[in-house]
Structure prediction request, 137 residues.
Amino acid sequence: MFHTVEDVAASLRIHPKTVLRFIREGKLRATRVGRAYRILNADLLEFVRIRPVSDAPRIVRVTSIVDIPEGSPSMQQYLSKSLHAMTLSRGSYHDPLQVDVAFDPVSSQIKIIIAATPGDTASLMSALETIVAQAET
Prediction:
């Protein structure tokens, strides 16, 4: 039985370009048919069987949404710059994190979305409390 690049990508839940890269690098055997590749079922099973499993520990992440009522565009900009400066410093943040700050002019509400490890989230929340208190005074 043969598989197409798209079939393999769908079954492995990866992008077809990644499958093509595996073929070019010789990690996955395939036969070229015209401009396309075909992968034997046995070759696919061998590839899946020998594929190394990452020894990296799983990273637990938290996604938090903070709503700040009675905000303003200037406060949104201030919070955005402050939080992004903290994420760029990376002094105390070991794992990838993401911070998005948005302002809803209809409700005058600021929404902050933080996706990070629990420890980094706690640190950012603590800093956010201080930043909001300073911005309100």
